[in-house]
Amino acid sequence: MSDEHGTIESHPLQGETYPPSPEFRDRANVNDPSVYLRAAEDPEAYWASEAEKLQWTKPFEEILDWSNPPFAKWFQDGELNVSANCLDRHVAAGLGDRVAIHFEGEPGDTRTITYAELTSEVKRAANMLTSLGVSAGDRVAIYMPMIPEAVIAMLAVARLGAAHSVVFGGFSAESLRARIDDARAELVITADGGYRKGRVSALKPTVDDALALHGGGSSVERVLVVKRTGNEIEMQAGRDLWWHDEIVTYDDQHQAQGFPAENPLFILYTSGTTGKPKGILHTSAGYLTQVSTTHRNVFDLKPDTDVYWCTADIGWITGHSYVVYGPLANGATQVIYEGTPETPDWGRWWSIIQKYGVTIFYTAPTAIRACMKVGRQVPEQYDLSSIRVLGSVGEPINPEAWRWYREVIGAGSAPIVDTWWQTETGAIMISALPGLTSLKPGSAQVPQPGIDVNVVDDAGNRVDRGQGGLLTIRRPWPSMVRTIWGDDQRFIDTYWAKFGDQYFAGDGARVDDDGDIWLLGRVDDVMNVSGHRLSTAEIESALVEHHAVAEAAVVGADDETTGQAVVAFVILKSQQTILTPEAAEQELKKHVAAQIGAIARPRQVFVVTELPKTRSGKIMRRLLKDAAEGKDIGDTTTLADTSVMQTISDRMRAEL
Ligand code: 6R9
């Protein structure tokens, strides 16, 4: 693999493996290795048999239509209701008394919601949304904290055949507005606020600000507000309604209608290599099939005894697929926690695991590393013996964090499934199956049954074992992104243009001698900060929007806790008097957070007089990245001005 894809070394720990214990293997949902062969021989038949586990109002006959690649259609002549599959179906099967959600608010308030109760609430909400004018084909924006109403809102929208666009509560008014406009949402569901780090984090005022931007006039007609924190907010007459005032006027009778398998289920925006976020479109039946299958297989879910907890926020794909749709389609009992792991102290997560007897725990490496830093003496104060499966997602988990996770949280015995997937893939694509796979710390390991993952060279040919290359997916899979909302051409250009017949994921990877896959990070201008994707272009354009900034370059520099951190290099306008170089760092950090959201706040902002550019004028971000990581600056001979990098590099070394 070439330099631009990063250096690939053989991992020294490649030999370290952990086979499943015989007891685990014997009881595992998947313990017959022939599943891989069966699925590889006829992937469509495999996925059809998985899809048949759902409840269809009209059974499908056609499995896959790939006559117009890259636009896939799965089970397209079938019809179902996604929400009824997550709710009514379980109640009808006599499981209404099973707990669906153990909710734990950050201040310590709790709610226990059974499947029967959740179904009633969603039906009521569906009636409310209907009378507010929501129907099949519409889009509803959801901007909420992690409270049960967020899940209820998503399922109510889905129940009506409309599509939701959940926007992470940490995003700014600008970001929210851009997403509302792109999806042309007519309704926004929000809350007065949520609790974060012991404080009220207001949400409704951000919605007000978003809707007031660009002179007001947006597609939004109504704003529905859940009361969570009781902070003072303004309610605009004729536009804003309190959820609790409205919902009591509707009853909990609602017959779910079946919708075509390819009916849009949701749009979720994610960063790409250019500044404009991409509206990733997912549809109904294929998505639900793959999220439920992978949730059952990868986590070895036993719905009648397990207590599952995924710490992801519903604002991200992990929250969509493995808090809402996968677990609920499988009738799981799960924990939903509103707040942050350090509130009121770093024992919070472990106390929740102890309290609810959590058996399956799914989180991100960045969180594990943060907990490692605090020290094992914290989790050791709690009884975590209920844990039997651990999951990881969002970025490669370094072997040191893997071992700590297994030893300290998993009692030295819980299998860890390292799950590779993306907003675009909708569901887990690469992961161990805990009853079958001998685990290898640091490697995501094997494609899921029925999934055709490859590591290829620049020409699209599979690389040999021991080699690195680019990660691609050859055959369409049920939960695959259907398009970029409103921009089919960008969908083609972004994912398919490079190889023609293979989906290009944007990640580098290596296959080891056993055929296991090791992910090596993004190969494009996308960063991974705390498991969240941010684009360098998006942050750069936010920076140059500041009146004092002439030019900006942003890189993701390796960071011990967050995986990568945003580091910005800016050139100030020569004539400007708004900012002194000394004041620039704080001001520009604040500016980026206000423009995009706190998640994009740079770790450092360096004011420089020049940026390293090639003779054709391209910024050499790779050199800046090396400088930001304190590394030696390699070959600079392609730079227009070779002294620039020396100056920057000397500065960085002085600061580090
Ligand atoms: C689910 C999610 C996707 C990008 C992806 C890759 C990175 C996710 C990973 C992983 C190594 C894993 N990524 N899981 N890298 N090992 N287990 O995170 O979706 O936010 O769209 O990010 O995250 O780079 O391309 P999304």
Basic shape = globular
Uncertain residue segments: 1-12
Q: Ends: how far apart?
A: 30 Å
Helix content, binned percent: 25-40%
Mean pLDDT: 93
Strands of the biggest beta sheet: in what spatial order?
Answer: 12-11-8-6-7-14-15-23
For the sheet with most strands, the description reads: 8 strands, mixed
Strands, total number: 30
| SS-based class | alpha/beta
Bound ligands, each once: ligand 6R9
Specify Rg, calculated over alpha carbons.
Answer: 24 Å
Strand content: 15-25%
Number of helices: 20
Keywords: Acetylation, ATP-binding, Ligase, Magnesium, Metal-binding, Nucleotide-binding
Domain Acetyl-coenzyme A synthetase N-terminal: 35-86
Domain AMP-binding enzyme C-terminal: 538-618
EC number: 6.2.1.1
Quick structural summary:
It contains 20 helices and 30 strands. With 656 residues, the protein is an alpha/beta fold.
Task: List the main descriptive attributes of the protein structure presented here.
disordered N terminus; metal ion binding; alpha/beta; 7-stranded mixed β-sheet; 31% helix; 656 residues; 8-stranded mixed β-sheet
